[in-house]
User: Fold these one by one.
Assistant:
Number 1:
Amino acid sequence: MKKLILGLFMTVLPTLALAAGPAVSLDSVDADHTNKASLQRGAATYMNYCAGCHSMEYARYNRIAADLEIPEDLFLENLIFTGAKIGELIEIGMDKKQAEAWFGSAPPDLTLVSRVRGEDWLYSYLRAFYKDDSRPLGVNNAVFENVGMPHVMVAEQGLCAVPPRIGTAPNVDPLSGNVRNVDICDSWAIEGSMEPAEFNSAMYDLTNFLSYMGDPIKVERERLGILVLIFVAIFFIFAYLLNREYWKDVH
């Protein structure tokens, strides 16, 4: 019995340790897998900015093309830059040992990252880079402290000179009536080519795409779930009437 209790305690201990860790404020986002235009833009962002380092080893190009309603010839021409065939898995050519030497750890596969981290975390993380000269790559992240990833979209977003405000919603100053915290950054070390709202929209699309990759049959699953519940409700009516007919003469 003592061994059983000890085993259960050791199983629960890692969960308790994670729960006791410092909480990070996040910006909320609602993924929409029915928004094909958003998913298409997110796929383009992933292929152009992320696929050089991050694989999706559990997904195939043609499945994405079919689900996102992108013709395969256009997908091949515009979104596959490695010479891979349309039916292949989304893999990268980067050697993991070299990646560990460059970044401290190999870039993770992104197929299921939304299931592990959550959409709010991804959306907040993608917008939370800031200048930090103490780090090897010169940047840090307000959501993932001491991250080894460079800010690959610095030309688009720019680079915040101070830790950005993540998880702080815009609000109105009661004295002046001015809207505060409209932008997550007060001072920019590098100016980006996109306006903050435009970059936020692009990161929403990328987050939406990564959310779809983590659960590509979500829309169909939810549709079937509703149909199953309707069937169960109808079946219950007939089952109830049949049961009453069988037992009506039993006293």
Number 2:
Amino acid sequence: MTNDSVVTIQNLVKQFPVGGDFFTALKDLSLTINKGEFTGLIGPSGSGKTTLLNIIGGLDSPTKGKVSVLGQALNDTSHGERARLRRKYMGFIFQSYNLLPVYTVFENVELPLILNKMDTDERRSMVEQAVESVGLTDKMDSRPNMLSGGECQRTAIARAIVHQPALVLADEPTANLDAENSHHIMKILVRLNQELSTSFIFATHDEKIMAYLRRIIHLDDGEITEDEIIDNPKARD
């Protein structure tokens, strides 16, 4: 693994038991993603993109093959070690937001910093900066049931990036949003990618996201069918 690569995958196979047999979701897949990339895993439902994202995030384990993320060989790490890697160096954005309903925007965003045992003053400063970066300073004390869908997703983004992770994984982050909110969300993520050099990997089939990507990895039936670099993403023209 080079110093510039955040993800290195070699001959990855992922199988799930189905009845008395196995379903092969990923088939001998190899891939490298470098620091600062803005990458999408694109493909129809069932193509393996979410499975691949979960393995990169250490949420699932490969059946065969080698997976290194941020310098850690996930094959050789315990559940606790993978959890620490996620907590300190990774951020996650899901289509369902996964906000805690009894917590305010501030408290939801603060949670990763509490888990990382940061002191109170440092936490407050970092939360305020993250919330400001997604344009929700005036909603700091609001709970999720007081927010729109777009505001909930922006809160989830602030939570994902508050600890300035090296890698953010996003699974269909605009699936529940209209076009205007989708573009607003993606522009925020592009800016964060540029300002922090955070690497982003999306799993999506949303064309609105594709317009912002600098690299598109096409998956079909568990295999990479095309890997293309986009020199001039349409959304940035």
Number 3:
Amino acid sequence: MKTYDIYELLNSNPYPGRGIIIGKSPDGKKAVTAYFIMGRSVNSRNRVFVEDGDGIRTEAFDPSLLTDPHLIIYSPVRVLGNKTIVTNGDQTDTIYELMDKQQTFEMALRTREFEDDAPNYTPRISGIMHVENGTYNYAMSILKSADGDPSSCQRYTFTYTDPLAGYGRFIHTYMGDGNPLPSFEGEPEKITVPDDIDEFTSKLWDNLNEDNKVSLFVRYIDIATGEADTRIINKNK
């Protein structure tokens, strides 16, 4: 499978929408994840990431400009024991709550489908990282309409056991800008990731489209200890 440069992927796409990256550092010691949001409307751009316990939530930067919290205010990241959940919507809570009741990642997502934002029907993208006793694996999911037909929901899950050091996978909501926005297609893209969290954070942010980028979250988790190191960048300050 082709390996992409994540920075080139971002730089060449003015509107990937929301994106999840999960992988492993080159030294094999860190579980890596990143999540970013972008926006074209005033409502979508009026957001920041704020820390919320072990996770994060989105929040209106200027509450007076918030016209519709539907689909834009949610918890992108939550931690359930040794599992870190990363998604682009309130399915984070669905996964958290149902896995807490001993259901699986896939079972939880069978209760959800793509977003109800016609005509885009934005895919719901989700990831889960499992770090325990020096072991690490992860899975990614996308729930999407049938080529824009909302009468059918197509669910895909990709699992990565003992992921290779230095590599990750990147899944995002849109293939690019458009009207309607074209949904992501195919398998999560294989990318390289660096050892240094600050380098990764800086380069991801710098290569997101300047007009459309809103917020970025990056976390490196020590596979041996479970300790997490986190970075957050918000365009709105």
Number 4:
Amino acid sequence: MANLFSLADLSIPEVNKILNRAEAFLDGAQSRAAEDKVIASLFFEPSTRTQQSFSMAACRLGAKVLTFNADSSSMQKGETFYDTVRTFEEIGSDALIIRHKENAYYKKLTGVKVPILSGGDGTGNHPTQSLLDLMTIRQEFGGFEGLRICIVGDILHSRVAHTNIEIMRRLGMDVYTSGPEEFREEGCDFIEFSKALETMDILMLLRIQHERLTGSMQTTAEEYNRDFGLSLSRCGRMKDGAIIMHPAPFNRGVEIDDEVVEGPRSRIFKQIRNGVFVRMAVIERAFSE
């Protein structure tokens, strides 16, 4: 049984093994590792890409998927998170995919005996998103060592940023952050956005995590777009061969303009496609280790 909560729990060889398997699936490799398995998709926060690509990955591996809706569940009657999860285990789920707003939610689930694959926890970790980001970067550049990436936006509240900063540093990448002062985080190497445009191999844009803000945002959407939004003119200042990434959902006209989303530098929809193959590799790993 192989849980997946955080990439910090994995060695670099283990990360590369998952990426290699994901590439094999992209190239047409077949697996029925989840044949006759039932996987419960328990998302206690909204999701499109992560939840549905996990479901697609499970189906391609031969599994059936149970989809949970918190708003129509017994949680509305007072059932706890733990009891909900245990219910899905006891009715016969062979693995659980869980997203929850609480950091390290999985520490409450130590009694669960089936594999748990995290679809994101609070502001802490988003391991499969980071893996698909890494897959996309490796496809583009052939490796990681010495690449320069700037993650731009709401670093403070982003599980994507926190996961990527940790693993990308271990892979030998130079990781910088940029964005409004209110979203900066200690321990991150800050760079002015104007300089990042001209010096980075990868610009990874983030949306503002409005659902996690405890107060009013100081910067308006218009101000954000003016100061940190990626427009066509700003794309023109990027290095030759530099690419644009975004974990999505993206806010058009705020952190990224319409013309840039599917422009020649953008790899955003490629990231989404890669997510299925990464999640196939993660599900296969859960049933094979």
